[in-house]
Design goal:
Layout: H1 2-14, H2 17-40, H3 46-57, H4 61-71, H5 76-93, H6 95-119, H7 134-153, H8 158-181, H9 187-229
Helix pairs in contact: 2-9, 4-8, 5-6, 5-7, 6-7, 6-9, 7-8, 7-9
Length: 230
């Protein structure tokens, strides 16, 4: 299982994946920068106000507690729990990613802090640091990586891979909705978290699966080249 997972990922990555990863990261980054310009100018979209008004119509006493609980998944404690669960599972499939995951998530935390400080846009409830949504950014990185590893390394049937991807997508969507419901973010805040999270994740995958893998492959060859001279 371990060898199949690693070889599958490396084989797919080498078949034109580096260019796709970098292209996707570039497109996501451009989308984020476009949103960030409006956020820095304290501007909002009509869709922000329209979505907020629509979500307010859905408010009900029975939904308040579930939304408060669900949104905790994107908090610091919720993310730590996800990492603690994921690392042992990843260790059986890809030790490289089991080690990289905590570093990747720590980087996502630093990235969201810098992005929020740069924009300085308030939340709908007037609390500071609204753009981009840190919950969405972090969950996109975490569950996006899970989707990538399942899609690239799974030897099961296609429908099971699709099901796994859908299961990983649901928490991101539910938590994003909870942020709107609790009046913590504008819709453009969520879009900002999605785009910068996707750009960060794709660059991280490119670094780990292309740069580091290529370095590992060159190391034995360099050792063989020095051996005759020795």
């Amino acid at each position: 299982m371990k060898r199949v997972g690693r070889s599958s990922i490396r084989r797919v990555v080498r078949r034109g994946k580096p260019r796709r990863l970098l292209s996707g990261a570039f497109i996501s980054l451009v989308g984020y920068l476009a949103l960030a310009v409006f956020a820095a100018q304290q501007q909002f979209f009509a869709l922000d106000y329209g979505t907020r008004a629509w979500v307010r119509q859905l408010h009900a006493e029975a939904l308040n507690l579930p939304m408060e609980v669900v949104t905790r998944l994107g908090d610091r404690i919720g993310l730590v729990v996800l990492i603690v669960i994921a690392v042992p599972l990843l260790w059986r499939v890809s030790r490289r990613w089991a080690i990289a995951l905590p570093v990747l998530m720590a980087g996502a935390g630093a990235l969201q802090w810098l992005a929020k400080a740069a924009s300085g846009r308030a939340r709908p409830n007037l609390a500071p640091f609204g753009f981009p949504s840190g919950h969405v950014l972090s969950l996109v990185v975490f569950f996006g990586l899970m989707v990538y590893l399942v899609a690239m390394a799974s030897s099961r049937r296609r429908r099971w891979r699709v099901l796994a991807c859908l299961i990983a997508t649901v928490p991101v969507v539910v938590v994003a909705f909870s942020r709107l419901y609790l009046d913590k973010h504008w819709l453009s805040d969520l879009a900002g978290g999605l785009t910068i999270g996707a750009a960060y994740l794709l660059l991280a995958i490119w670094l780990v699966e292309v740069v580091l893998v290529r370095t590992d492959d060159l190391a034995p060859a360099a050792g063989e080249a020095r051996e005759p001279g020795a």
